[in-house]
Amino acid sequence: MFTGLVRSIGAVVESSKSGDGVDLRVQLELGGWQPPTGASIALSGVCCTVVEASGDEALFHLSAETLRRTWLGEAVPGTRLNIEPALCAGDPLGGHIVQGHVDSVGRIDVPIDGSRGGELWVEVPDDLRRFCVEKGSLTIDGVSLTIAALDGPRVMIAVIPHTAQVTTLGGAPAGTPVHLEVDVLGKYVERLLEARFGPTGPPMGS
Length: 206
Prior knowledge:
Oligomer: single chain
Number of strands: 12
Low-confidence stretches: none
Helix content: 10-25%
Structural class: mainly beta
């Protein structure tokens, strides 16, 4: 589990085809900390498993499912990634509950300044919009954020300068693909209501 509080910005060192998946070698930039084999690390919001580590680099194998759900298959050497190691027992939960299980890929519609931040507008796919509520949580490329406004297919995030400076969202141009993970609590609530009332929900007036 993660919180969406990015620890560093890493970069792809190498990407190579491996069966129906991809092997991705990443420079983590975690101050010399070397994760053990089997550790979970979020790469721009995607929970990935370390299969080999050496120095400040780690190797990850991306499955076909991961490639289908994310933009990591398009990553090339030099592509920057938001890095967050998994939570340890006792760590503060400073953002919100983030699983690292990407729901879909959206796109930046209106970018922000890389130093000052500002109003970031992101296009959200149709099937995820019902989980987006004003003042609700949304993870974008692994960053825990709060939705400030909704406008049709878009959500707006008021990004503070610090977040713009320490994540890849700062300065990312319009059209950039971003990983989206909606609040898992909303998905559980929807599932429980469907089990009780069916897909149409409770009857009016109940």
